[in-house]
């Protein structure tokens, strides 16, 4: 028989820290549970979750060489007659329940669960309990002593009680984090499937995530601050517009050129959250976070697309239909290409007042109420 269990100085605190850290790296959970098993000098741990309304298993984790072979048989049949499920449901979450608290030797001798399953696989005494309970979903954990070992009593039971306290706070964190990971993965998958380019930028104009459409349109420029893009013809750069959007919290659209390709950009502010601000852990989290995925430090989302062109023939037809002068037709083509009146004036080397007169002439001849209506009319004429 093994000697009476004694606390190992300094081990418990490290295990608790590892347990909570595993919320961020679920792959570490089996290893952490295995170390808790060794720390408590147990012969294996089984953590299992059920959806009681459907009577189906949601999760199962076994650690310990002595009981790993029993998992398949348990899940296929013996889970349905496991008396410990009811014991765990009756007790408060995070409280240790030992099988010998309620199940005496007479019960064990006549129990199919004990005689045909548990004892033949090695365990005799079990202690644990419920560590998660929410809307019919429950997670129980069981620590095992093999046949020939003592009950869970004394210092070991006290230590197990302290560990159960933390397990019952850790498991809801795991469930919540898993839900958030699934939601984030689903959102990112949806974003990556869009035909329109999306890029998420931080306060410094660095790209934190870009979907495949944005990569296709912007290429290696995504790795450059402010995308390495020059702005419109007024000489401003994209970073000026990013800062403006961050300060005003209002979206902004512009047209830029990448080589010979014209791209339409829309910069939109993302909602501010406490994690983005100067309160709480915002600055600390921001300084530690990496640049992968849809990151909490994103301040602006950029949509990018190559606007559908308007055929020269269609524009020529409109010019003829409306009786435009050559200068007015040139303005019509510029507006169709996404050029603003001010940019057109600068490009043509004429005064803005001249272009404004041409705009008024265009509106009158096209019977459009305003420039927005004119642009909508042009937009309806797309590439064949």
Give a description of the structure.
- This protein has three domains: 11-184, Beta-Lactamase, CATH 3.30.450; 194-305, Beta-Lactamase, CATH 3.30.450.20; 312-379, Arc Repressor Mutant, subunit A, CATH 1.10.10.
- The radius of gyration is 33 Å and the shape is rod-shaped.
- With 384 residues, the chain is α+β, with helices and mostly antiparallel strands.
- The chain has 16 helices and ten strands.
At the fourth level of CATH, the homologous superfamily of the largest domain is Transcription factor LuxR-like, autoinducer-binding domain
CATH overall fold name of the largest domain = Beta-Lactamase
Question: What's the CATH C level of the largest domain?
Answer: Alpha Beta
**Spatial sequence of strands, sheet with the most strands:** 2-1-5-4-3
* Spatial extent as radius of gyration: 33 Å
Which consecutive residue ranges, at least 5 long each, have pLDDT under 50? 230-236, 274-294
Annotation, overall tally of beta strands: 10
Please, what is the oligomeric state? Answer: single chain
Helical residue percent band: 40-55%
Q: Overall 3D geometry?
A: rod-shaped
Overall pLDDT metric: 79
* Total number of distinct structural domains: 3
What is the overall number of helices?
16
Defining key terms:
5-stranded antiparallel β-sheet, rod-shaped, 10 strands, 384 residues, Arc Repressor Mutant, subunit A, Beta-Lactamase, alpha+beta, 3 domains
């Amino acid at each position: 028989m093994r000697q009476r269990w004694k606390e190992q100085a300094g081990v418990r605190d490290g295990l608790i820290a590892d347990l909570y850290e595993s919320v961020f790296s679920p792959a570490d959970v089996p290893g952490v549970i295995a170390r808790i098993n060794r720390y408590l000098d147990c012969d294996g741990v089984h953590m299992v979750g059920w959806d009681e309304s459907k009577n189906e298993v949601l999760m199962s984790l076994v650690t310990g060489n002595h009981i790993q072979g029993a998992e398949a048989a348990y899940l296929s049949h013996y889970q349905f007659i496991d008396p410990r499920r009811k014991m765990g449901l009756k007790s408060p979450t995070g409280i240790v329940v030992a099988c010998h608290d309620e199940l005496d030797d007479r019960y064990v001798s006549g129990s199919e669960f004990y005689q045909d399953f548990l004892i033949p696989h090695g365990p005799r005494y079990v202690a644990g309990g419920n560590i998660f309970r929410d809307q019919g979903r429950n997670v129980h954990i069981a620590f095992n002593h093999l046949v020939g070992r003592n009950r869970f009593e004394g210092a070991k039971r006290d230590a197990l009680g302290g560990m159960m306290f933390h397990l019952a706070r850790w498991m809801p964190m795991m469930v919540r984090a898993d839900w958030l990971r699934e939601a984030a993965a689903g959102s990112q998958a949806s974003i990556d499937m869009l035909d329109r380019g999306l890029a998420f930028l931080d306060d410094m104009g660095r790209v934190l995530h870009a979907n495949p459409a944005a990569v296709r349109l912007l290429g290696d420029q995504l790795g450059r601050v402010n995308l390495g893009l020059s702005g419109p013809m007024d000489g401003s750069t994209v970073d000026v517009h990013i800062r403006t959007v961050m300060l005003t919290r209002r979206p902004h659209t512009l047209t830029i050129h990448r080589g010979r390709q014209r791209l339409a950009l829309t910069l939109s502010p993302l909602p501010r959250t406490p994690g983005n601000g100067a309160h709480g852990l915002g600055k600390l989290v921001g300084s530690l976070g990496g640049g992968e995925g849809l990151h909490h430090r994103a301040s602006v989302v950029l949509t990018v697309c190559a606007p559908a062109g308007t055929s020269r023939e269609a524009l020529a037809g409109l010019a003829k239909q409306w009786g435009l002068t050559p200068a007015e037709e040139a303005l019509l083509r510029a507006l169709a290409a996404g050029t603003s009146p001010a940019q057109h004036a600068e490009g043509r080397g004429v005064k803005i007042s001249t272009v404004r007169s041409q705009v008024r002439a265009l509106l009158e001849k096209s019977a459009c109420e305003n420039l927005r209506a004119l642009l909508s009319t042009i937009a309806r004429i797309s590439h064949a």
